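To assess whether the prediction recovers the assembly geometry, we first specified each molecular entity separately, as shown.
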Amino acid sequence: MEGSVRLDEVVMRFGDFTAIETTSLTIESGEFFSFLGPSGCGKTTLLNIVSGFLVPSQGQVHIGGEPMAGVPVNRRPTAMIFQNLALFPLMTVFENIEFGLEVRGVDKKARREVSERLLALVALEGSGPKRVTELSGGQKQRVAIARALAVEPRVLLLDEPLSALDLKLRQHMRAELKTIQRKTGITFIYITHDQGEALTMSDRVAVMSAGRIQQVADPMTLYRSPATGFVAAFVGETNRLEARLIDREGKRIRLDGGVLGELAGCAGEGVELGNGERVALYVRPEHLKPVSADAAGPRLEGDVEAVHFEGASVMLETRLSASGETLRVQLGHEVSRQYADSLTVGQRMTFGYDPADAVV
Ligand code: ATP
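The predicted structure of the complete assembly is given in tokenized form:
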């Protein structure tokens, strides 16, 4: 059975409160797919609808092309890894991994074969006889993965499984999870509020806000062509500047103060924007670079208010002369060395950018 997941016009209400607005989406078999969004946006609710812990108020879920209405949690081709892992602390690693198989009546020899194979997959060979309490956080994480895989799910649902780990280990486990996913070919549905996690591991990401999917795209597209201001601000860092529309030509927009930008993907060609209309321009700190005050193209001028040395780069905070807004500018190693003399508080600087990198 293949592991695609399809949501057809799924809605979830809790009393009067709508936690999930009408959502339709197909996750391909073998895809590493993440739901990314702030706390309370409905990620866990969506995952619980796929796993069967929640029955949607409206709409249909199909897994592997089969309708899931009326199919209980334990009959679905899914397994779940929770934030707290929910391992049995007093049992051994073997017993934890084999638990689901034992419940299904698989004999001991066959069970052990499966757990040995999975321990090798998660790089924990030889740890089978250990008790869970003897393991480190990262090792427990791997046992939880092995246990979930033991029942041969077509879809693995992961609810912020790395959030309890320290930064180093979390980064290591990201790579590990991605490798395991690739090796097994199982569909992974991952939920997180951490954009770094979502961007590094996923084939595609759905960015959510307040029960609504804002954009579904591969990580690079999300970053380069955010469909909404919410996505621009949530995925990576961005400056939000207020401006008034002067005129537009296709997607290219001219704003007051000689500022240029491009209409966001979601806005598209059909949007009616009248001259003089107030809009927001999003431009990322790393897309700004120092230019001379009379340079061609869009220019933003301001006084440096703070200089933060961040190792590989320098972050400037600049107060824009025209609007008083704060502009954050990230300069890479080469550029910050070239402009070393100007990188002091009180300096007036002008920054330019490629209009294609600015989203209106
Ligand atoms: P977090 O990252 O904090 O877990 P989340 O994005 O997973 O957040 P959900 O747990 O899906 O968010 O919750 C979405 C919204 O639905 C929240 O406002 C929450 O309070 C509400 N909610 C979730 N479950 C229930 C429930 N059983 N009854 C009532 N409201 C609920």
